[in-house]
Amino acid sequence: MNSLQTILDVKDQKTTAVELVTRTLETIRKKEPSIHAFITIMDDAISAAERIDRKIARGEKTGTLAGLPIAIKDNISVKGVRNTCGSKMLANYIPPYNADVVDRLLREDAVICGKTAMDEFAMGSSTETCSFGPTHNPWDLSRVPGGSSGGSAAAVASGEALAALGCDTGGSVRCPSAFTSTVGLKPTYGMVSRWGLVSYANSLELISPIAPDVLGVAALLGVISGFDEKDSTSVTNVIPSNVEETTREPGKFKVGIVREFFAEGTDERVAGQVHKALDKIREVGGSIEEVSIPILRYALPTYYLIAMSECSSNLSRFDGLRYGFHLKAKPNEGWDELYSRTRAVGFGEEVKRRIILGTFALSAGYFDEWFVKAAKVRTLIIKEFLQAFKSFDLLAGPTMPCLPWKLGEIVDPLSMYRMDIDTIAVNLAGIPAISIPAGLVDGLPVGLQLMAKHFDELSLLRVSYAYERVTHFSDKLPVN
Amino acid sequence: MPGDQGRQFTESDARKYAALAKIKLDRDEEARLASELGKILSHFEQIKEVETTNVEPTYSVLDIVNRLREDESKNPLTQEEAMANAGEKKDGYFKSPKAF
Questions:
Q1: Confidence grade of residue A11 (pLDDT, cut at 50, 70, 90)
Q2: Looking at the domain assignment, is residue B44 inside a domain?
Q3: Which of A1, A297, A396, B99 could form a disulfide with A212 if both were Cys (CB 3.0 to 4.6 A apart)?
Q4: How many CA atoms lie less than 13 Å away from A123 in the CB half-sphere?
């Protein structure tokens, strides 16, 4: 599967945008009953495709993504299309504006084919906390697709979209990419505008692309990244990725295998498969050595304390009054009671758990002990990453410590948090990272994670593309 | 100091912080959350081992500080658009219960 070739075929009039989008909608109709990647399907995508075909027929200039059917995670605003965040709280919320990334995609003539399922407010690693039902992994329908952008990754893996956007706060794009054998890249913090993304943990999260192949991700990243004055955390020094640069040979480069990413709890089969993938990285020019970053053993509590604290603040906006789930006040019911009742019904269990723990970590008497402590450990994590990048161009490890688990298999919250052990440190440091397919174990996908220093997406993309050319991973497709 | 017994997070704590977060809990939820959050905090205790004297906290990985722009309106939502998702409205205002 090659997402870029299809765009070229539309431009060269070997196929039409309408044909492409019609085929995608047919695939959606056929596969949705078993996969459930979408919360909203855009049946009017055909009319957007017709507009693009008319442009091409008239010889007008078309965008770099002309006719590309793309799926958008349901916490990224598309004007006039409901944006549920996988939550009852926003089940009927219709955003009155586009996210900045959506404006950018539409300017380049991409066609939005639907809004995808996700863990409620992006809080989860399996897409099981979605209030509208879980997504199933196209490689094995009894297993989770990972999360929280599980719908986006499953849609790309099953051909229900040729590309997708997710968001990655602690691995929410890399985890489902690993579990579905797709490519997912979390860019450097600040590269992509968060305007129109419903915020969960604002210092950690970023909208991130998913595609079946590396060039698809490079093309998407080139479109969605760039300065946006509407986002106060958007950076001005964005180096746009592009497809041509991505296809250049990576030359010789040094890769550090991070010992802490193979810690106790890592499935040996996954570790073995990742080492096989690293042999291929060696084939394309990488010299590989082991490196230790000891502070990473504290990444999990550091991440969760910061994410939960930010979540308790960000989700305070959901009052049921201005938008979102609304309850009628009982006679003589005051503001506090109605607000508390609305949030009790509108939020699911995991969201409540994180808001309440975050409220505790930010409260008077505990603020320094928990939140500030975590913020200080975060400083040390950044410092040790930067130190490692003095010796290595890239760092590597498994994306996930295990194979995709069965739906319902992990019920304990802490056990679920532990699944994020290899992805969260990247968000704490704000560095870019990519998950690329490392092959299958017992028919289930494994992801290889590569990390680079801030703003060095190009190294990730070049090495990943060289790796794709020797492994042909995008030729392997799931049965479902 | 909490030891091997794990950190105590009581039902009354669950009630207190849920109230601060404006989330109404029933008795069963209070009990369940107290037990779950106690277990989670016990695990999180390990970060206290890290020596952080003289380490500055990081609240953002970027160096950007207070980026400002001219105070001019740019493509604002209309009142109708801004209120389209409201549960109850009256005379162009959001309608809420009494706050005082």
A1: confident
A2: yes
A3: A1
A4: 27
CATH 3.30.43.10 fits A3-250+431-475, yes or no: no
> Helix and strand tally (H, E) in chain A?
16, 11
Q: Residue B11 is part of which domain span?
A: 1-52
Residue of B nearest to A191 (CA): B62
Q: How many structural domains does chain B have?
A: 1
- The domain limits of chain A are 3-250+431-475
Both tokens of A311, joined, read 């979540």
- Name the residues of A annotated as catalytic: 73, 148, 172
Question: Quick check: is B30 in a domain?
Answer: yes
- Residue B94 forms part of a structural domain: no
Q: H or E stretch including A452?
A: strand A444-452
Q: What single letter denotes the amino acid at residue B28? A: D
Question: What are the beta bridge partners of residue A32?
Answer: none
With contact defined as beta carbons under 8 Å apart, do A147 and A125 qualify?
Answer: yes
B61-82 average pLDDT score: 88
Question: Which of B17, B60, B62 faces A363 most closely, judged by CB atoms?
Answer: B17
Contact B62 A233 (CB under 8 A): yes
Residues 323-362 on A with a CB inside 8 Å of B are 323-324, 326-329, 333-341, 343-344, 347, 352-353, 355-357, 359-360
Interface predicted TM-score (ipTM) of this complex, two decimals: 0.93
| pTM (predicted TM-score) | 0.97
Q: Residues with Cβ < 8 Å from A5, sequence gap 6 or more?
A: none
Cβ pairs A/B, distance under 8 A: 162
Residue A436 dihedral angles phi and psi, to the nearest 5°: -125, 150
Residue-wise pLDDT tens digits, A81-97: 999 999 999 999 999 99
Tell me the chain A residues in contact with residue B88 when contact means C-beta distances shorter than 8 Å: 326, 328
